[in-house]
Design a protein that fits this description.
mainly alpha, two-stranded antiparallel ribbon, 2 strands
């Protein structure tokens, strides 16, 4: 019995050892699988780190480009506003010039009408003589009106002495010194 008991204990111990060995083999295989997965994960991690750095650099470039584009946009908006203001000013100036042109066109029409009237009036010798007489008469009247308008209101219309006071200032002063 003792032998049987020892045999049973030995068989149980051998079973336990076999189970432990089997379990050790399974654990070693799992360890190898986990290590290979770890190596794969580490290589993936290195790849992902490189990808993350590349993406961060690309993001930085994109942000820099975005800032440059925004600053360019602001500059272009300012330029556009300035050009719009200049365009408005130029349109106003164009309107003024067009109004001035219309005025000048009206003056030209009036002058052309007067020219046609004068050509008609001065086409014959008799009409020309009459126009010369009218012009001389008008020039005489203008000269007389001018002579009267040149006189200052305080002056005496050509009188040299008025009420014992000379009206014109003397041009030269004469001092008389008696002889000794």
């Amino acid at each position: 019995m003792k032998k049987e008991r020892n045999t049973i204990i030995l068989i149980i111990c051998l079973g336990i050892v076999a189970f432990i060995l089997w379990r050790y083999g399974v654990v070693l295989r799992e360890k190898q699988i986990v290590q290979s997965e770890l190596v794969t994960a580490q290589s993936n991690l290195v790849t992902l780190e490189g990808e993350r750095k590349r993406l961060n650099q690309e993001l930085a470039r994109e942000l820099k480009l975005k800032e440059e584009l925004l600053s360019a946009k602001v500059i272009l908006e300012r330029n556009l506003a300035a050009k719009e203001e200049k365009l408005i000013e130029m349109q106003e100036a164009l309107q003024k010039v067009e109004a001035e042109k219309e005025k000048l066109d009206a003056k030209v029409r009036v002058l052309n009408e007067e020219k046609a009237r004068l050509e008609d009036k001065l086409s014959s010798v008799e009409k020309l003589k009459q126009a010369i007489k009218d012009l001389k008469t008008r020039m005489r009247q203008d000269k007389q009106n001018k002579d009267l308008s040149d006189v200052e209101p305080g002056r005496n219309l050509g009188y040299v002495v008025k009420d014992g006071i000379p009206t014109y200032p003397p041009d030269k002063r004469v001092n008389v010194i008696p002889l000794p």
